[in-house]
Amino acid sequence: MCEGAVTEVQYFSGIRDHFRALPVVIGTCDIDGCGRDPLSVVREAEKRRDAAIGKARRHADAYLAYDEVWAVVDVDDHTSLEAAIRRARETGIHLAVSRPCFEIWLLWHFQEFPSGLTSAAARDKIDEHLPRYDKHLPESFPYGAYETARLRARKADPRHDSPNRKGSNPSTNVWLTIEAIAASGQRTIHGQGSAS
Q1: Where are the alpha helices (DSSP H) in 59-108?
Q2: At what angle do helices 174-189 and 7-19 cross, to 10 degrees?
């Protein structure tokens, strides 16, 4: 589940395709659905997980349930972030948090950026690499540079290495979500089962 309805969904769809992780399902939270604050994203992730578990039981097919459920949110100015982190821990949702926003993860695909910044500054920096960035990623986005972005994220905040926590500015643990997607792709390629 993604807080954002455009950029994050495009990015994770591109990563899923990059790793050929076809059984990965990427959901969005939009204003019509669950709202845009982190707690709403976690609750929507729970709701969809529980619905998939129910469907798996009704059809006696364990493959209809999700192997893992991830929620991806920004720090921004959300007042519900701490509640979302607690709820994710309590309910088994893996919460990835970007500070100040998801664009820091995108930026690390292109350049080192160790200094704190605002969401607006992160978007301005992205515009230097993706001219006319308007929350839409071009087909040519360098998904293969995720490893470089991961290294930069780890360098910026080495302690932000597990789900359900908020790091310093700048930081993200989105790379954990990508590792889960990559692992799903490997299970699929090697015939070890299906993951969602």
Answers
A1: 81-91, 103-107
A2: 30
Cα 107 from Cα 64, distance rounded (Å): 35
Band (pLDDT 50/70/90 cuts) for residue 103 is very high
- Name the nearest CA neighbour of 163 among 104, 107, 93: 93
User: Per-residue confidence at 21, pLDDT binned at 50, 70, 90?
Assistant: confident
**Long-range Cβ contact pairs of 119-124 (< 8 A, separation 24 or more):** 119/74, 119/76, 122/170
Tell me 162's DSSP state: S
For the stretch 21-24, contacts whose Cβ atoms lie closer than 8 Å and that sit 24 or more positions apart, written own/partner, are: 21/181, 21/182, 21/184, 21/185, 21/188, 21/195, 22/185, 22/188, 23/184, 23/188, 23/194, 23/195, 23/196, 24/181, 24/184, 24/185, 24/195, 24/196
Percent of the chain that is helix, strand, coil (3-state, to 5): 50, 10, 45
Radius of gyration of the chain (CA): 16
Q: Judge contact between 114 and 155, C-beta under 8 A.
A: yes
What's the pLDDT at 29? 54
Tokens of residue 142, six digits: 């360098």
In angstroms, rounded to a whole number, what is the distance separating the alpha carbons of residues 8 and 65? 23
